[in-house]
Amino acid sequence: MITGYDHFVTLAESLQWDETGIDYSADREAWPRLTDTEKTRVLGLIAGFVIAETAVSRELGTYQAAASGDSMEAAFRAQARDEARHARFFDLVAAEVAGVPGADPTARRDALRSLVSVDLVDLFEERLPATAQRLAEDHECLTAAVGLYHMVIEGVVLLAGQHAMLDMLEGLSVRLPGVHKGMELVLRDERWHIGFGSRIVQRADIGRDEADMLLTQGETAAKVWGDLITPDAIETAVRQHRRRLKAAGIKFW
Ligand SMILES: [Fe+2]
Ligand SMILES: [Fe+2]
């Protein structure tokens, strides 16, 4: 019998992919032919994803430790495997397609940090770790921590960035097929992560203050991409966030 969060684990298993199995040769050849503006815009989003995916994959162990039950724990473990792959994928694209210098992922991440807003870096490298730290100290904070990670970070910030990236890739003067393929696979993984987080939030008893906080956090977080994504895309992300919170049974007063 399938109970709790088991179906997310089964789904994750069926969606496995390997970032090194994608062919980036056409992308490598195409990159120098992009215009400077195109390179700047693609690299800005890649920089955000490198920082984001590295940070989220680092924090999931704490969520796993705070899980209530084996089924939820297994789903966090499956998610951690996805996030680690996403971090490797974006680093691979930065290094091998975009030619970002650096001997290792840390050095490349340092080189990319100046391409995104201070607010984006702060969200992933300060606020998320601080939330995970609170969760490590008090497992009762799980719903709030999932609210920030799955609903706000994944549901608003990453989803908006991924859609913007796919739109941008489709409009480039030359194609980047390997990057496009990987982006689609990342997005497919993120959908079940958000579904999993929504389920946790749905099963919790969310009060008015927490509901308001989730909504406000989403509205603020949507802006961390700065001008890397359009105001329209930000608005859409916030609207979907509100709809997802409602679907998870959260009432707004
Ligand atoms: Fe991810
Ligand atoms: Fe994710």
CATH architecture designation: Orthogonal Bundle
CATH class: Mainly Alpha
The averaged pLDDT comes out at 94
Helix content: over 70%
Organism: Pseudonocardia alaniniphila
Protein name: Ribonucleotide-diphosphate reductase subunit beta
Pfam families: Ribonuc_red_sm
Cofactor: Fe cation
Commentary on this structure:
- The chain has 253 residues and is mostly helical.
- The protein has ten helices and no strands.
- The chain has helices at residues 6-14, 25-30, 36-66, 70-97, 105-112, 118-137, 142-171, 177-203, 208-221, 231-247.
- Helix 7 runs parallel beside helix 9, helix 7 (142-171) runs antiparallel to helix 10 and helix 9 runs antiparallel to helix 10.
- It starts with 5 loop residues before the first helix and ends in a 6-residue tail after the last helix.
- 43% of the residues are buried.
- The model has no long low-confidence stretch (mean pLDDT 94).
- Bound molecules: fe (ii) ion (2 copies).
- One fe (ii) ion binds at residues 53, 56, 83, 86, 190.
- It holds the Pfam family Ribonuc_red_sm.
- It comes from Pseudonocardia alaniniphila.
